[in-house]
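Let's inspect a concrete specimen:
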Amino acid sequence: MRTFIILIFFMFLNFCLNAQQNSVLSSGNWYKIGVAEDGIYRLSYNDFQNLGVNTSNLDVNSIKLYGNGGGMLPLLNSIDRINDLRENTIEVVDLNGNGIFNSDDYVLFFAESAHQWVFDSSSNVFNYNEHLYSELNYYFLTIDISSNGKRIMQKPIFTNYDKTITSFDDFKVHEVNSENLIQSGREWYGERFGIIDKYSFDFNFPNLNTSSPVFIKTSVAARSLNSSYFTLSVNNNFLSNINVGNIVYDYATEYAKASLSSNQFTSNSDQIDVDIEYNYSENNAIGWLNYIQLNSRRDLKMHNGLLHFRDTESMTNNELGKFVLTNANSQTKVWDVSWS
């Protein structure tokens, strides 16, 4: 017992030594902003007032925004994490240029949702990590007259580059967390198969690059005394069967068996229809869908005024790439929103 107590003490001491001595939250007034999706957000003069910010003679340079991006904290205490909020770069639009935040002025900032897509270099696809405890991610606004806030700046233009990039990686997911099979643990499932044996799901990738494969990852589970399988079809074409092993009714055995399938296909249409059907022989068999993830390549074209894009192919050889964005105009702005 003594050894255990000493170990915990040293772990706590190490944490304290690595923590910030003075958090940015330790002084000033802070205003919490929740976001549900990735995107560029706009804070108007009225938004500032509704948050409780004193807008009287508000210096535009004093406006600061803090946040650490999306995703959950690491589950393991041994994994390093950011122990304080980072200041984000923002754009403050001061329409008359007087340096005071007036009624027509506004702030633009990029924010990430609580959920996160993480690139897996081994499989060369993005995997979706759903936040288990929150649907919102939070950013923190403050007014600090001691120093100027970080602002979006013009980046240098390079005339020499290794490749031209005209398409980008995109991804979509269907995941519903409605049923925990054993009322314990972090894994939740969505659609239930048994009474209903087939479900259909629609995905749309505007300006899909039809010459590139689409990668689909499907996670399912089943509870059946006999082996069963799911049939996966895309755009009314059979793609694969997902086999699931049988369970046994012994003490402390698995309640259900899970199975994961990864496949690829090509599509001639932006619209991708995915059908999943459960096939079984036991009358009491039950199946569940965990998630469907799609990774594709899209042509680099503006769509509906906003486009969030990235290109993993240009990262492989440490090359300098030139992005060629079509359907843009003189008012189009491109922000680099990657963390440094």
Q: What stands out?
A: The chain has two domains: 21-143, 176-296.
